[in-house]
Amino acid sequence: MTLSGLAPAKINLFLHVGPVADDGYHPLASLVAFADVGDGVTVTPADALSLSVTGLFGGALAGEGDNLILRGLRALGEAAGIGAPPVAVTLDKQLPIAAGLGGGSADAGTAIRLAAQLLDLDLDEAALEAVAGVVGADGPMCLRARPAWATGRGGDLTDEPRLPPLPAVLLNPGLPSPTGAVYRAYDDAPAGGTDCPEAPADWSPGVVIDWLKAQRNDLEAPALRVTPGISEALAAMRAMPGCRLTRMSGSGATVFGLFDDAAAAEAAAVALQRPGWWGRPCLLGNPASG
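Above: the chain sequence. Below: its structure as tokens.
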């Protein structure tokens, strides 16, 4: 028996960040959505835990060692009392690395869920989320892979089923944007706060996009200081016909554009092709429901 699943790209539709707290973490407020594009994860029974990586960006993970997938699966086995789960995992890496898309956490979350199902482990959803937390603050939200408000360190989650599917383009300029460096740049000149806006009264796509325009990503300015090339991707996206909102996701370097319809997004994705750039049209929302 083999199980496969999509590890979807995570997008912070807005990301409000406060100054670092005494515990060393930055409090935040965000509305998170997931794309219908991402990495592929396949899990098969085996004699011992193993991981192989293929795909467009697989080479960037060669020799990484303690991949987040392996870390998450070891934690899964510990929680279930079985040791390292006897599964072989194949990761088809289609998302760029250090891209602000939660790719590593999504890969781990999908592998955890698939392995738990494959091995018929007696762990409920709360237990699986606790396991996913070992890979980082994004772990539980990426295990859920559905729209949610995130607060605190990012692990306090409230589902948001009203978010409509939003036609979008994801665009990465082929540049890494290391999260640690971006947060250090933010700390040099902290500008933001953990204000969480009141939800829109009307959740139709046009109204939601207008509401999102009033929000921000507090990591965008520091990310631009660390990786100035992100500005070229932002400018290119803003210039696309029908693009209603352009913003960086997470700590970058991926930016997204929201469009009124899928046709405009698909046309923009074609027009945005550049050597060394990565771009995909998608729907943002809840890919698990599609």
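Residues 141 and 217 are 18 Å apart (CA to CA).
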